Design the sequence.
């Protein structure tokens, strides 16, 4: 893994980070290690050891890290970063490419489409395996910030809605929850809508209730968090549903959906209408995901990513299919 920044994918002469990448990841031009001093097995062992004390949810092997004297080290308190290695259980396709998949998808969201995303990078573990690194956004000036995901806002849990509680609901419901809890709804609703369309456009079939959250702004008002957990899940799970949630809270189908059997631009414009977005704004947001210039920039990032060539080809085929869907074909 050399020749580009491990965060921004900008060209570099050697392994490491660009100045822009470092500022995003650590807030300065201090150094960050490109290769960590532990293996995936040690990550799994550490997670099992501190599982009862850590605040990170989810079934994927993850560990919280701190930057200490220029090294990233596992910690169970005051974590500054989240590390996700290759999943421990095999996926139907491209298991070893999952960290690179998440990295490039997050970079595309922010660099190409202007979607605020958690600062991230792809690093190597001690044995050379890749791992996805993400700067935690639930800290401000060294203090913990309250973050609440949309499952919690909806009052949904395994006890109340069963084991699939985070998949119970609709994207329209997300908008209603945001309207209820966010004073700056008009601004945040556009951000939420763009994130939903991005997830569809880039094959993320796991954009469920817990993958959207709000946090307290510097003024104390709830706003959307930076995007997180964005990856082209269809790369690994080709038979999954295109959407983790229903678009609408009722059984409504647009004529386009009835004809084609999958969502297109008309479906997302209807969702935007239910969010209360202005039609001109929603059309512009949806159109961005089929814009040729933006598509070329996204495709270039995929080709410069740390995905191997076969995974790049498969990723781009999925995204091309979604672009056709959003053009109404």
Sequence:
């Amino acid at each position: 893994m050399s020749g580009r920044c491990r965060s921004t994918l900008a060209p570099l002469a050697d392994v490491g980070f660009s100045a822009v990448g470092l500022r995003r990841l650590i807030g300065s031009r201090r150094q960050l290690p490109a290769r960590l001093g532990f293996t995936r097995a040690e990550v799994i062992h550490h997670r099992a050891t501190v599982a009862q004390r850590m605040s990170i949810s989810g079934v994927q092997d993850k560990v919280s890290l701190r930057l200490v004297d220029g090294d990233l080290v596992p910690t169970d308190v005051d974590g500054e970063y989240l590390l996700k290695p290759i999943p421990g259980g095999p996926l139907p396709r491209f298991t070893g490419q999952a960290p690179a998949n998440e990295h490039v998808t997050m970079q595309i969201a922010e660099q190409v489409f202007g979607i605020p995303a958690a600062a991230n990078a792809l690093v190597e573990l001690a044995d050379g395996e890749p791992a996805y690194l993400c700067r935690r956004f639930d800290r401000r000036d060294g203090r913990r910030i309250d973050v609440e995901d949309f499952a919690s806002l909806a009052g949904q849990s395994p006890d109340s809605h069963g084991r699939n509680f985070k998949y119970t609901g609709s994207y329209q419901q997300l908008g209603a929850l945001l309207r209820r809890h966010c004073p700056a709804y008009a601004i945040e609703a556009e951000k939420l809508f763009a994130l939903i369309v991005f997830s569809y456009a880039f094959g993320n079939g796991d954009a469920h209730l817990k993958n959207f959250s709000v946090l307290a702004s510097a003024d104390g008002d709830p706003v959307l968090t930076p995007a997180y957990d964005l990856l082209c899940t269809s790369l690994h799970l080709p038979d999954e549903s295109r959407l983790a949630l229903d678009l609408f809270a009722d059984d409504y189908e647009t004529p386009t959906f009835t004809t084609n059997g999958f969502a297109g631009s008309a479906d997302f414009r209807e969702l935007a209408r239910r969010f209360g977005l202005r039609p001109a704004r929603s059309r512009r947001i949806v159109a961005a995901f089929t814009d040729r210039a933006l598509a070329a920039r996204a495709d270039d990032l995929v080709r410069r990513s740390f995905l191997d060539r076969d995974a790049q080809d498969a990723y781009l085929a999925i995204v091309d299919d979604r672009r056709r869907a959003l053009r109404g074909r």
